[in-house]
Amino acid sequence: MTASFPILPPQTHTGAVTLRVRDLPGLTEFYGTLLGLTRLAEGHNRITLGAHGTPLLHLEGDASLPPAPLSRPGLYHTAFLLPSRADLGRWLRYAAGLNAAGMGLRLGTGDHLVSEAIYLNDPEGNGIEVYRDRNRDAWTWEDGQVKMDTKAVNVEDLLAAAGDTMFEGAPAGTAVSHVHLKVGNAAQAAQFYAQTLGLDVVADMGSAAFLSWGGYHHHIGLNEWHSRGQSAASTLETGLGDVEILTPDLSGLRTHLSGQEGVQDSGDALTLHDPWGNRLTVREVAQQ
Fold it and tell me: How far apart are CA 194 and CA 179, in angstroms?
């Protein structure tokens, strides 16, 4: 069933990610050191990290939680977008320096045609992508699909883009611009996200799908590479707690989801879960 009105406007995008972690002090220090995030708020077993006043990551600590197995649906990675190629080059040089100092990061790269990305995991196995976008006029679209691939990043050229400037913390404009999730069935998940949140499927790769609002290359990635056939966890584990989605207008989604079970309405936000237990909070915020 397709809604006859926009479910969410094209300006909708991803916001902060919540992670459930065992070692709250350790993960706080890790993300602060790795990405130059600063502490914005602190509560009981909860710390919010961000850049220039913008929340990007909420860490909720519970040392009693068991670690989620790799096959469990949940977070594949949180993707932190840097404003420019020079910013990414500066960060990569800095990350290499952390490794030289003994931090032991295992870095991978991916040139996706629309973007260049560096990949790694945090100490509890949560995936991280740090990336920069190519200009939109360099993206190739055909029949509503954006062309993406995974090739090696030209690391030397990327480092050269930074010149002799140094990484000095997360630059202004750093954002969580997409979130990639593990699901039990990528095709079914793509249908759920398209029909429930009004996302467009912009790349269908069979075992993975990529969806967005407003013509972005993707705000939500979905894959079944490790989790095919799996269902939602029946017990609480470490890993993804929530994906925040920010929109200037919640009214279309509120109408669309009216009467559906499992949807919580707190006035400025609607909270729901996908079929694999991934929690989504769609929050109305003033357009900037």
Answer: 15
At residue 4 the predicted structure's pLDDT band, cuts being 50, 70 and 90, is low
Q: Note whether 272 and 280 are within 8 A (CB).
A: yes
Q: Determine contact, residues 120/107, Cβ cutoff 8 Å.
A: yes
Angle, nearest 10°, between helix axes 24-35 and 85-100? 130
The SS3 call for residue 52 is coil
Pairwise CA distance, residues 116 & 62, whole Å: 34
**Contact at 8 Å (CB) between 89 and 159?**
yes
- The predicted model scores a pTM of 0.96
Domain 13-284: which CATH number of 3.10.180.10, 3.90.79.10, 3.40.250.10, 3.20.20.70: 3.10.180.10
Q: pLDDT tens-digit profile of 236-261?
A: 999 999 999 999 999 999 999 999 99
- pLDDT at 3 > cutoff 70: no
- Let me know if 14 is exposed, middle or buried by CB neighbors in 10 A (0-12, 13-18, 19+): buried
Residues 139 and 147: beta-carbon distance below 8 Å: yes
Handedness of CA 35, 269, 217, 112 (dihedral sign): positive
Candidates 75, 127, 129, 27; CA nearest to 242 is: 75
